[in-house]
């Protein structure tokens, strides 16, 4: 008797089928892809995506990816479009409609709206000769690959390829627009992504908040400065340049005659520093590796710019 496949066997078959389809999509990238990008780059309004069922879910995901990477985009449900939401689609927009069969009847009103107002229409479909493909300005055909489900009908391979095509469009637009890390942060101020892209300059303390002493500062005054600013450290500054740092460890090592010394006699010279432009996770990594709780941020010529404390980084959600 044949041995029944295990769940792992089934999973590997699914992934192999979908991976083969993605390779086919890559190798046979639709000739219209470049002209689609040219059209989308010229859009003055938004890129409107729509689809029904599973295609609608993928359309919403593509819209979200585009919107977060510099291409204003919006998902419109085709059913709602037929009941008033067509007003969301203007002549300044472009449309991307998704239908595996190319015959999704719920898209008919959006197609008619595109024709009426001469709105560019991009079709993502497995049947470029279907109704949707024939009405489209540009067509991005999906590969003629089998669905990965056992009955060959549930949207699996087709939705994977559609999502990948959407990623390809979004990333191509992102690169051609010159969308950089800083732009990405502007659209992701909250959550883990935003925290990982924060720079030291966004978190550091500056100006009067900084604990600063000079070489000749008596240690009693230095202790008062450290206590007042509350970071447990002090920057040793000469002519605006950071030359040393006083820490709790320095205080303990000089406890026997601490109050008779100057800041320069107690400080650790040439301390670890970081650039204000460095990412917060990098600063956290330096702190963890060196077992310290604060870093002074300096410019290229070692001019003191600020101080970032480990608590500032953790409060921002970087971990």
Kindly describe this structure.
By secondary structure, the protein is of the alpha/beta class. The protein folds into two domains: 173 residues, Rossmann fold; 116 residues, CBS-domain (Roll). 43% of the residues lie in helices and 16% in strands. It is built from 15 helices and twelve strands. It has a five-stranded parallel β-sheet with strand order 2-1-3-4-5. A hairpin with a 2-residue loop joins strand 7 and strand 8. Helix 1 crosses helix 7 and helix 3 runs parallel beside helix 7. The longest helix is centred in the N-terminal third of the chain and has 21 residues. The radius of gyration is 29 Å and the shape is elongated. The relative contact order is 0.10. The mean pLDDT is 92.
Entry summary:
The chain has 319 residues and is α/β, with parallel strands linked by helices.
Largest sheet, if any?
5 strands, parallel
Provide a count of the helices.
Answer: 15
CATH class of the largest domain: Alpha Beta
- Low-confidence spans: pLDDT under 50, at least 5 residues? none
The best one-word shape is: elongated
How many β-strands, per DSSP? 12
What's the CATH architecture of the largest domain? 3-Layer(aba) Sandwich
Give the N-terminus to C-terminus distance in angstroms: 53 Å
The Rg value, from CA coordinates, equals 29 Å
Q: Which class do the helix and strand fractions yield? A: alpha/beta
Overall mean pLDDT score?
A: 92
Indicate the CATH topology of the largest domain.
Rossmann fold
């Amino acid at each position: 008797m044949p041995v029944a496949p295990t769940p792992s066997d089934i999973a590997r078959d699914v992934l192999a089928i979908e991976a083969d389809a993605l390779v086919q999509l890559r190798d046979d990238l639709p000739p219209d892809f470049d002209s689609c990008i040219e059209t989308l780059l010229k859009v003055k309004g938004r890129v409107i995506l729509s689809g029904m069922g599973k295609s609608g879910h993928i359309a919403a995901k593509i819209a979200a990816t585009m919107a977060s990477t510099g291409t204003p985009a919006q998902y419109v449900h085709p059913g709602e479009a037929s009941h008033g939401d067509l007003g969301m689609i203007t002549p300044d927009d472009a449309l991307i409609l998704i239908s595996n069969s190319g015959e999704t009847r719920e898209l008919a009103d959006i197609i008619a709206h595109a024709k009426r107002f001469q709105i560019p229409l991009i079709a993502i479909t497995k049947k470029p000769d279907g109704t949707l493909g024939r009405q489209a300005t540009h067509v991005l055909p999906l590969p003629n690959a089998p669905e990965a489900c056992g009955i060959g009908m549930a949207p699996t391979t087709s939705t994977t390829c559609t999502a990948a095509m959407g990623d390809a469009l979004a990333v191509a637009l992102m690169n051609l627009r010159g969308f950089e890390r800083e732009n990405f942060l502007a659209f992701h101020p909250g959550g883990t992504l935003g925290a990982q892209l924060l720079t030291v300059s966004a978190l550091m303390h500056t100006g009067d908040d900084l604990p600063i002493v000079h070489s000749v500062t008596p240690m009693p005054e230095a202790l008062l400065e450290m206590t007042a600013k509350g970071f447990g450290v002090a920057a040793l500054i000469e002519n605006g340049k950071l030359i040393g740092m006083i820490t709790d460890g320095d205080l303990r090592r000089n406890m026997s005659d601490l109050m008779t010394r100057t800041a320069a006699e107690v400080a650790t010279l040439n301390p670890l520093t970081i650039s204000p432009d460095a990412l917060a996770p990098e600063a956290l990594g330096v702190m963890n590796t060196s077992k310290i709780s604060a870093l002074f941020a300096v410019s290229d010529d070692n001019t003191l710019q600020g101080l970032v404390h480990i608590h500032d980084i953790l409060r921002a959600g970087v971990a």
